[in-house]
Amino acid sequence: MGIIRALDVVYEYLKRDDDGNVTGSIRAVDGVSLDVAPGDFIAILGHNGSGKSTLAKHMNAILTPTEGCVWVDGKDTRSEEEVWDIRRSAGMVFQNPDNQIIGQVVEEDVGFGPENMGVPTKEIWERVEESLKAVGIYELRKASPNKLSGGQKQRVSIAGVLAMHPKCIVLDEPTAMLDPNGRKEVIRAVRALNDVEGITIILITHYMEEIVHADKVFVMDHGEIAMQGTPREIFSQVEKLKELRLDVPQVTLLAYELQQRGVALPDGILTIEELVEEIGRLKECQS
Amino acid sequence: MLRDITIGQYYQTDSVIHRLDPRVKLAGTLLFIVSLFFFQNIGGYLAAALFLALVIRLSKVPFRYIVRGMRAILFVLLITVTFNLFLTPGRTLVELFGGHVRITYEGLKMAFFIALRLAFLIVGSSIMTLTTTPNHLTDGLERALRPLKVFKAPVHEVAMMMSIALRFIPLLLEETDKIMKAQMARGADFESGNLIQRAKAMVPILVPLFICAFRRAADLAMAMEARCYRGGEGRTKMKPLVYGRADYLAYFLLAVYTVGSIFIGRL
Known about the structure:
The complex is a heterodimer. By secondary structure, chain A is α/β, with parallel strands linked by helices. Chain A is built from 10 helices and 10 strands. Chain A has a single domain, classed as P-loop containing nucleotide triphosphate hydrolases (Rossmann fold, 3-Layer(aba) Sandwich). In chain A, a hairpin with a 2-residue loop joins strand 4 and strand 5. By secondary structure, chain B is mainly α. Chain B has 2 domains: 158 residues, no CATH class; 102 residues, no CATH class. Chain B contains 10 helices and 2 strands; from the N terminus they run H-H-H-H-H-E-E-H-H-H-H-H. At the A-B interface, helix 2, helix 3 and helix 4 of A face helix 8 and helix 9 of B.
């Protein structure tokens, strides 16, 4: 069984008028089922309001489904007693780094999670050190989070989750508030965790470039899973992605347009190197 | 201008004072403040100034940095001084406006001492926050107030709230700055008019600021829960408080200062 499994998950928000009377409900997540294998790098994609963040919060028992079930590491998220175990095995990184850093010194913030779990002092220090090294900000351990760049702050948040030794990390749009450099730093750190430490990653984003390296991609729309497959499979359906109001990476779009004009390129080109290689091959064929 | 407020901020460096146990610093701040209220002559204030200068020197926090924080309370200081200067009865020194307003010898003395007392009070307490991280400070408070748990006082919760409030001060100041600039760009005027008009102009800043603060609080609460925070029960410490030799020495010096300065101040 997978580390995270969702079965027909439905989540409804109640709409209220000014007096607090219920006037209706919105289905933010509508019948989602998915199964994540340990060690996978999963990307969940969708435009604003597609329900991807709501789904993410189910994986950490912050929200519990209105209908259906979510199991994290075999535990039902609705059981009150196991909530803390679930949050320990599935850590969560949020969008705004300023609103999730509790400590005023980097190392204190990273130690916050293990402190809450009751880890002995000596081991907290070991965990903090190894987590900070894993995301490459060990030299900033004594700094104040207010003085860091966005990418660094977000890596502090990731280290904070990592120090709790989770099996899986859910990142809810961790790069949405960062500049391109910060985005690269964070994605590099996340990929390293997946490759080196074998931690399951669930990355929620609306930046297409970030999902190129994922093992599997889910595209959400109106609370439902609209598409799923490997990045290559997803990106080969350029028209459908446009329908879902998602931007395709420029290289993929260029390859697609060339293909439409009759250039014999394969579907779903993801990187510049790939395109260069394919065009090179075409030239060889012609000469 | 808003970012100049250094009260409640942490100054990152490594010094003897920074390494002291927060309980020592808490007790020190408290004793220092209490001692200020015992002084009746200039001698006491001199002793306090000397003590403060020594602590600042040891803390390696630049003096300019501390003074910059004082500017924020300059206004309060001026009002207090003015009131004391003009409204204390006693021997007349100067008469203004045909005897309606006068400065007395006692008033002058009182105003001078009050100004010193306030300034020392602020500098003394900001030394504590400048040299202690909020988490450390909270730990200290929690340990110092632990006996109150017997009466079911939510010691850990209050300490945690305080440390979070302290961490959010710079963020909220930044936010205020941003909102003010955004409104100034759209023609809001915060600088002209009388006091009431200026206060009224501040209302449109407060509303978005409050909304923003609540949103941040909700986000932070969620982030804390996601990291398994569930109150003080079963929590371990990354930096447990253990008294070292320096701490005992500091306690001793504090005792010497307190007794000595009060003795001098009441001669």
